[in-house]
TrEMBL record:
Pfam families: TPMT
GO MF assignments: S-adenosylmethionine-dependent methyltransferase activity
Native source species: Myroides guanonis
UniProt name for this protein: Thiopurine S-methyltransferase (TPMT)
CDD domains: AdoMet_MTases
Length: 195
């Protein structure tokens, strides 16, 4: 049910309550301390692309984004005409092939059916390059109240999930959340389980 048509209809009806309007502070602070602007970065479920815009304006050269809906990608094309079109990928994250040094998580995990969580963790591991990192925020509230996203979880659940597939570095209370998400977010830093 959480397919392309579902997400497209959200964008068409402008029911995009997840849209923070700009890069969120946890992601901005993380990006600001990155030194190497040549790393390959992926933003899955990119939506309006605020993180992409920030990275692009900061001079990060190799950023790729994917979204299952075309509407947000069209929006980004208009907002950032200089961004290479071939890096705006329309498709399903679970079918993406590639190798990335960093994958940024921002309200993508919570948008997926919870049945896909094991697959998400495995796919993240597969998409990361040697020592690659999955970094970002996950919601910290009960999983499912009305049967629709955003789906939450908690630190213990997330640790168990990611330990099975990846190298857990830290999952901790996010200290710099944007106001509506204060005390409802965990910051994650998880790395590829190298073979
Ligand atoms: C809750 S929105 C978050 C958008 C953006 N990350 C933000 O924070 O504004 C979830 C996004 O994931 C996209 N999405 C959902 N399932 C997907 C999938 N399997 N592959 C790629 N994108 C997907 C949706 O189209 C939507 O843009």
């Amino acid at each position: 049910m959480l397919n392309e048509a579902f997400w497209s209809s959200k964008y068409q009806s402008k029911s995009t309550h997840w849209n923070a309007g700009e890069i969120t502070k946890p992601l901005k602070d993380y990006v600001d301390q990155l030194k190497d602007k040549n790393i390959n970065i992926l933003i899955p479920g990119v939506g309006h692309g605020h993180e992409l815009k920030y990275l692009f304006n900061q001079g990060f050269k190799n950023v790729y984004v994917i979204d299952i809906a075309t509407e947000p990608l069209d929006y980004i094309r208009k907002q950032l005409p200089a961004f290479p079109n071939e890096r705006l990928i329309h498709g399903d994250f679970f079918e993406l092939e590639g190798s990335f040094d960093l994958i940024l998580e921002q309200t993508f995990f919570c948008a997926l059916n919870p049945d896909l969580r094991e697959k998400y963790a495995q796919k993240m591991n597969d998409l990361l390059s040697y020592n690659g990192k999955l970094v970002g925020v996950l919601f910290d509230f009960p999983l499912d109240t009305i049967g629709l996203p955003p789906y939450g979880g908690n630190k213990e659940e997330y640790e168990l999930l990611f330990m099975n597939h990846m190298r857990l570095i830290k999952i901790e209370r996010c200290y710099n959340s944007i106001k509506p998400r204060i005390d409802r977010e965990l910051f994650i830093h998880i790395e590829k389980k190298n073979d």
